[in-house]
Amino acid sequence: MEVWFEFASNYSYPAVMRVEALARQAGVDIAWKPFLLGPVFRALGWDSSPFVVQKAKGEYALKQDMPRLCAKYGLPWQHPSVFPRRALLPLRVALLASEEPWVGEFCRRMMRLHFGEDVDIDQPGVVADTLAILGQDADEVLLRAQSEHNRQRLREQTDAAQRKGLFGAPTFIVGDAMFWGNDRLEDALLWACGERYL
Amino acid sequence: MEVWFEFASNYSYPAVMRVEALARQAGVDIAWKPFLLGPVFRALGWDSSPFVVQKAKGEYALKQDMPRLCAKYGLPWQHPSVFPRRALLPLRVALLASEEPWVGEFCRRMMRLHFGEDVDIDQPGVVADTLAILGQDADEVLLRAQSEHNRQRLREQTDAAQRKGLFGAPTFIVGDAMFWGNDRLEDALLWACGERYL
């Protein structure tokens, strides 16, 4: 199952926190697919996050739905002081690390800092500290993450998201089937297990 | 718990089909709140349903998510040949009947015709047939539903939805808490039972 996500996306937060454990229980392999939501939104004609463009929906999502969801899942939540917050550097690192065994823990730590502690995660120091905690050579990882080759790969991954018809995050892809939103994580995993409900 | 819904709204379909039985199990009283989604969307600056304005999202919702959700809930699904479909007359009847014991069954039958059988439910004959099945005097109900008084009440209910900050349907209101979407029906009922997750 492909897990398409953005660190800037608030509903990607609970999905990223939950997906690895749930997939393991379900016996489903996952592929981490970090991508840039901004270009996808702009290509759809939206200037920013729907939660900025559609104010009432954004107020509800960030002030009512997210705090309740996080409480339900036992996740910390802090109303973000900046939204949406750019998270280019962590996305580049996640892309670089997407087949490393530590990618899940890296993503969870970034998400927890962003939405659980309202930390600006687009800072090299913040990313480096997390890499160090994970036993990685932070300088080396950051250098490779910022290379022109890796920047280009992130642009290409974002193009791929658009070609697949993604319009938001998180999105789970299982074969031809697309599942949009944290609310569909369990359904996507059932689908990946061959469950067709019928 | 207030159940705000629109017959034109595809995600109101599974919510309307499920809410009465789930609320009864949870011991929660519900108030049926039919309203017009069109004026609410227009007041938010959207010309039509977000599933029309945002094509990719609409394609996903109607061609992937709805068929799967309906299969999961054991509900019939037919891709609507017209979307969004006007459902003014059934909404007026639902409003008129909103405190009658047969309101739930009326709403479910309208929804099943609309999204399960792709029937144009804004036709007096279709509504009359359903009223007759429910043992109601169809002519009398339709006359009262179409009265200026009842038309005005539906406009007022729609104004009330806007004052409450609704931006979509279905929406469940429990005190000050708003829950948007069929996906939040269970959470809203837990909230109505006093569950605060914390």
Notable features of this structure?
homodimer; 198 residues; alpha+beta; Glutaredoxin; four-stranded mixed beta sheet; 4 strands; 56% helix; isomerase (chains A, B)
Quaternary structure of the protein: homodimer
How would the global form of chain A be characterised? globular
CATH topology of chain A: Glutaredoxin
Tell me the fraction of residues in β-strands of chain A, as a range: 5-15%
User: What is the terminal separation of chain A in angstroms?
Assistant: 21 Å
Radius of gyration of chain A: 16 Å
What is the tally of helical segments of chain A? 10
Strands of chain A, total number: 4
Strand order of the largest sheet of chain A: 2-1-3-4
Secondary structure elements and pairings:
The structure is a homodimer of 198-residue chains.
Chain A: E1 2-5, H1 12-26, E2 31-34, H2 37-43, H3 50-53, H4 55-73, H5 88-96, H6 103-117, H7 124-133, H8 138-145, H9 148-163, E3 171-174, E4 177-180, H10 185-192
Parallel strand pairs in A: 1-2
Antiparallel strand pairs in A: 1-3, 3-4
Helix pairs in contact in A: 1-6, 1-10, 2-9, 5-8, 5-9, 7-8
